[in-house]
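Protocol step 4 of 6: record predicted structures for both targets in the notebook before any analysis. Target 1:
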Amino acid sequence: MIIYLLCFVLFGIGLHAVVNKKNLIKIVVGVAIMEYSMNLLLVLIGYRMGGVAPIIDRETVAGEFVRLSVDPLPQAMVLTSIVIGLGVISLMVSVCIRLYEKYGTFDITKIKELRG
């Protein structure tokens, strides 16, 4: 149970970086931390203590198989989430680079002042 709480603490750290920081790079890192905490939570939800891969054996009894197998759906969702997150983070970094080329700073407050 404590590990789920740690996932939410990690999400809170990322949310704090997104909401309170003024540097664009720190905001991007905060979004990445939030994404990784959600991926970790999804993997932990599908984990079963002492579980095995969900492959049916002839020796496995049906009731025992269902009770001891690890759920593969969260793992597939996390793989998809990693690919989508990589695209989003790369897009955010490219926007940060363009903003730095135009304004010469990563500070949001200075970018708002330098409109043009």
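Target 2:
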Amino acid sequence: MKKLFSLLSIIGIIAISNCTRVPENNDPILGIWAKTESSIDGKGTDSTREEWIFNDVYLGRYQSYSNSKLVFYTDFKWSEENGTYSIIYGDPQVEDITVSLEQSNDPEILALENGSVFATRE
């Protein structure tokens, strides 16, 4: 009797888990966004690159490079409400931010609330 009950329990769990469906996220922010800055000093050129990688489960990765070397990274959560995206970082060293997507431009840009460019699509 225990074997029959165990078998039915396993079949029930498998049946229920196969019936769940993960909704597909087709948000236009998905992908890699970047901001690159260069400066020239007495020693040469110094370049800084920041990347935000948005994935479809409302998570992402922020990475900062200096002269092509990774110097900092952290994960973030993101959400969208009425065309405004909130980015909430997992590290207190980075300040949370709110941006909006400007799709009419080429390349597409993420803009800050004051209208300045935050990042461009890769």
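Step 5 preliminary note on target 2. The radius of gyration is 21 Å. The beta strands are 31-41, 44-54, 59-66, 69-81, 84-89, 97-102, 109-111, 117-121.
Proceed to step 6 after PI sign-off.
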